């Protein structure tokens, strides 16, 4: 009886411990319920069916914080990107480049006016705004499953459109048609895309952008971790496929990738210090862009 009681006691302790561990999930759910949420979708926040018809972006007096009571990381940002313009954003570390891209998607608290194709983004439903802007981060995330499921998770496009987008993004330029391990729509993608190179993940992210036909495409340091050949293919795809009324905003890591842009924005300590064509900025004797170019050694 003593041995049986000891065994039962150990079993009770194990059950209680397991219940405590499982309770962590419930505690996490309660924490998510109590935290401040993003504004819910409303009928008034739905944009017109034609929106967005162009990539026109007008920003006035934009101030950004990472918390409601935190310090400002962007101060009185003012600029206008016309539809179809290619704009490069440069600056030193912590100048506010990534913060600016997050503020366009309202991922952090913002103040000021941001008008996308004539509509104030603060009045739009967040799902409508974010589904109309495509951002390609430094390391795109992929889900486990087929490549087709990653490119078109809601089944909105056919195989012809997806294959065309893959070709336009430059995937087939990286692999031989006779290669046994060549990637197709049926190829299996592991969790996080760990069975792919960073360059291939960037190409798949660009493919998503081509398929979605967004009027604003944001590239956040996409060339910082890929080789020269893949970078050349991606840059060529951007120039060939994303033309017309698609506005391209590039947060630059390699200055040579944005020197043919229509305009370059130079940020410093959360403020715009220069915003003009590359030719005009390089002619400024003590200019910020000119200093960055001279330091780069290219």
TrEMBL record:
Organism in which the protein naturally occurs: Mycena albidolilacea
Keywords: ATP-binding, Hydrolase, Membrane, Nucleotide-binding, Signal, Transmembrane, Transmembrane helix, Transport
An example molecular function term from Gene Ontology annotations: ATPase-coupled transmembrane transporter activity
The protein's name: P-loop containing nucleoside triphosphate hydrolase protein
Pfam families assigned: ABC_tran (PF00005)
Domain ABC transporter: 57-294
Gene Ontology CC: membrane
InterPro entries tied to this protein: AAA+_ATPase, ABC_transporter-like_ATP-bd, ABC_transporter_C-like, P-loop_NTPase
Keyword Kinase applies: no
PROSITE patterns, sorted: ABC_TRANSPORTER_2
Lineage of origin: Eukaryota, Fungi, Dikarya, Basidiomycota, Agaricomycotina
Key word Nucleotide-binding present: yes
Signal peptide: 1-18
Domain of life per record: Eukaryota
């Amino acid at each position: 009886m003593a041995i049986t009681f000891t065994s039962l006691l150990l079993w009770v302790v194990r059950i209680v411990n397991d219940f405590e561990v499982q309770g962590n999930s419930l505690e996490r759910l309660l924490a998510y319920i109590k935290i401040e949420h993003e504004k819910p979708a409303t009928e008034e926040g739905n944009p017109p069916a034609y929106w967005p018809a162009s990539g026109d972006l007008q920003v006035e007096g934009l101030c950004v914080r990472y918390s409601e009571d935190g310090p400002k990381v962007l101060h009185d940002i003012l600029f206008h990107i016309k539809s179809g313009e290619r704009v490069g954003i440069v600056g030193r570390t912590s100048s506010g480049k990534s913060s600016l891209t997050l503020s366009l998607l309202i991922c952090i608290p913002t103040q000021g006016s941001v008008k996308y194709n004539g509509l104030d983004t603060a009045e739009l439903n967040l799902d409508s705004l974010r589904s109309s802007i495509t951002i390609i981060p430094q390391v795109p995330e992929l889900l486990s499953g087929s490549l087709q499921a990653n490119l078109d998770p809601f089944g909105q496009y056919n195989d012809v459109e997806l294959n065309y987008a893959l070709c336009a993004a430059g995937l087939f330029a990286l692999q031989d048609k006779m290669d046994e391990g060549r990637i197709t729509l049926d190829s299996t993608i592991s969790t996080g895309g760990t069975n792919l190179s960073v360059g291939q993940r960037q190409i798949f992210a660009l493919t998503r952008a081509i398929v979605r036909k967004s009027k604003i495409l944001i590239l956040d340091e996409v060339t910082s971790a890929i080789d020269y050949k893949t970078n050349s293919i991606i840059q060529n795809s951007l120039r060939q496929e994303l033309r017309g009324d698609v506005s391209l905003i590039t947060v630059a890591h390699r200055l040579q990738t944005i020197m043919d842009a229509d305009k370059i924005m130079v940020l410093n300590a959360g403020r715009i210090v220069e915003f003009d064509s590359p030719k005009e900025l390089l002619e400024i004797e003590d200019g910020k862009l000119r200093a960055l170019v001279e330091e780069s050694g290219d």
